[in-house]
Amino acid sequence: MPLISTIGRKSLSVRLLIGSIYLVLTIGSVTMLYPFLLMIAGSTKSNVDINEMRIIPGFLSDDDVLYRKYVEGLFNEYTNNFKSTYNTEDSKFEVAKVPTQVNDKLVDSWDSFLQRNPLPQHASMVGMMQASVSRSVQPILLRKFMRQLSEEYDDKIENINHALEVEFTNWSTFVVRDLPKTGRRNVITPSLFNKRLAEFYAQQADVYRYYPSITGMYLSQFLKTQYTRDIDVYNKTHDTHYASYDDVYLPRTYPVDGTPMEKEDWENFVRQSLNLLWLTADESARPIFTEFLKARYPSIDQLNEAYDTNHVNYQAVPMGGMQLSTPKQMVDWQNMIEGWINPDSGKRLIIPLEMIRVDSVDFRYADDLIDQYGTIENVNATLGTHYRNVADIQTPQRQWHYRLFEQIKGDLRWEFCIRNYVTVFNYIVLHGRGVFNTVVYCVLAVIAALIVNPMAAYAMSRYKMPSTYKVLLFLMLTMAFPPMVTQIPNFLMLRELGLLNTFAALILPSLANGYSIFLLKGFFDSLPRELYESAGLDGANEWVMFWQITMNLSKPILAVIALAAFNFAYANFMFALLTCQDEKMWTLMVWLYQLQSNSTQGVVFASLMIAAFPTFIVFAFAQNIIMRGIVVPVEK
């Protein structure tokens, strides 16, 4: 019977009351739904959009936000690589400038240059392989590389470790640490793993590839770190009159006509900072280099053995540059750039500054344009550019990448939507036995709760013992103490019994629950006594009456007990970590805690969403049973 009759609902005051109730309920649902939607949106975030407070991620509707996320992934979240390659003043990816237009002729000339001039593998870098800030995130190309290795080595990390001479403990610790070969310390390290990585890099499309700019590195990482970004500071120290850093450039050779400070900067950059791969020398330095090689390797056979080459004489040995491929060659060329003292004669051999040349992709591209068009004026007229001189020519990679970005916007949106979820899924599936342990633990916890608690409640309900309420009161008193108070005594007891790092350690302390027994006893007391009397007259024993009558009629309350037991076991973190410190016995919550402690907001939110999904499924299943059994069936 309804609380308000049909006639009563026609009253204005009643309608206002009902409307107010619905309004309050709606507001309450919104206050719950809004944070949930924020969490869903947050599960797709990276460092670029981490400060967004929108229920719909910005990159789904805003191409500018999507472009910034793409650039962040392209440069593996390294802002220094981003600033030097684009030679930009943008301090971080969040404020990266989006190209307003693309000079297709200029970009086509860059594409043509790359096709006609094969460059060595170390001249370019591949993005979407690392997450230097997000750390635990697995970008798309890293996952692709992992899949290839998994197929090649039967999905066994041990086979990869043995074949490629690496030491990954599992798939979740599989990472690639690769930096552009621009700084002096970032050297080529020959190894089977790096060789396999280079093969993978060679297969990737240009949309995830960039070419580090040495000119940009000179400005952003060498000059501006010493003289700040203020051009006035630079002018004052160098006795120059540049309007901005756009007028400053890296000379290809020693700036003979430059100011003393410009000469000093160039010398320090070349002698100490720039990677040796981008340095070569004029043929005028050949006598010095040959003298050095003869002092180090008395015969050409010894040199070929050390370099793993087949040069016919010393004059055929290249003087540095992109041809360097072995550590021995790198060390010898470094001695020539920084200086080497012959231990026999005491003579110091070093290539003079005037003979050293910077040979980078930037300069090769500039030479290619001049070779095609003759003069800088012809380049400007043909390509629609405004270069002041040859030194002003830079690689148009920002526009190049933007044009490629326009072609894959749909794929990028899908990638950024699922990337954090795939990272979490791979972590919990491939990392230890967390899923298996959690499933076993939850199943045992539910089964135990549905056997022990009903049996205890049934005994107190069927048999009116004098101490029933004292026992019930004792069980209820256990609810007065928070779980943290009993963890240490339970741990000590389990340790004495030798049960640590077992499922018994997880199950036994919560085997009987006072609140569940209290609920079940009250429910059993409400069942008609006539049922048991009739069953007894028909010859049913106590087990039949408990299992076939009591348990069958108690499905709603049993669903509540099962749901509570599942939630407790599934969400159990602290006690599970305390009693099962062996990684082989860690549950899902422990592994997710390990993941979250080394992850950014996006991965944390994604892990929470995935962790909540099983609870939602179990609750939905139990809810149907509860709703169907709200009215307890009675004998007709």
Quick tags:
single chain, 636 residues, mainly alpha, two-stranded antiparallel ribbon, two-stranded antiparallel sheet, 28 helices, disordered C terminus
Question: How is this fold's topology laid out?
Answer:
Layout: H1 12-42, H2 63-74, H3 79-86, H4 104-116, E1 125-126, H5 140-152, H6 157-164, H7 192-203, E2 209-210, H8 214-227, H9 231-238, H10 260-273, E3 279-281, H11 286-296, H12 300-307, H13 327-338, E4 340-341, E5 348-349, E6 356-358, H14 361-373, H15 376-383, H16 397-407, H17 409-430, H18 434-462, H19 468-477, H20 483-496, H21 503-507, H22 514-525, H23 529-537, H24 542-553, H25 555-571, H26 574-579, H27 588-596, H28 601-628
Antiparallel strand pairs: 1-2, 3-6, 4-5
Helix pairs in contact: 2-17, 3-8, 14-15, 17-28, 18-22, 18-25, 18-27, 19-22, 25-28, 27-28
What does this protein look like?
- The protein is mostly helical.
- It folds into four domains: 35 residues; 184 residues, no CATH class; 83 residues, no CATH class; 197 residues, MetI-like (MetI-like fold).
- 58% of the residues lie in helices and 2% in strands.
- The protein has a two-stranded antiparallel sheet with strand order 1-2. Strands 3-6 form a two-stranded antiparallel sheet.
- A hairpin with a 6-residue loop joins strand 4 and strand 5.
- The two termini are 22 Å apart.
- 30% of the residues are buried.
- The C terminus is likely disordered.
